[in-house]
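sorry to bug you again but im stuck and you know this stuff better than me. theres a chain ive been looking at and ive put its sequence and its fold in token form underneath. id like you to explain what the token line says about the fold, in plain words if possible. anything you notice is useful, everything is just below.
___
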Amino acid sequence: MTEQKTAPEGGIGVKALLTVSWLWVGVPFAIGVYQLVIKAAQLFA
């Protein structure tokens, strides 16, 4: 039988970095979408 290799589990540092990276991109994106919806509502109201 062949031995199946898996990727090593990420430590807390890798998970924290991934979380911070997603927040770094996600929060400004969410704010921009929110502002877009508000402006579009004003445009069509």
The two ends are 68 Å apart (CA to CA). The chain has a mean pLDDT of 88. The helical segments are 12-44.
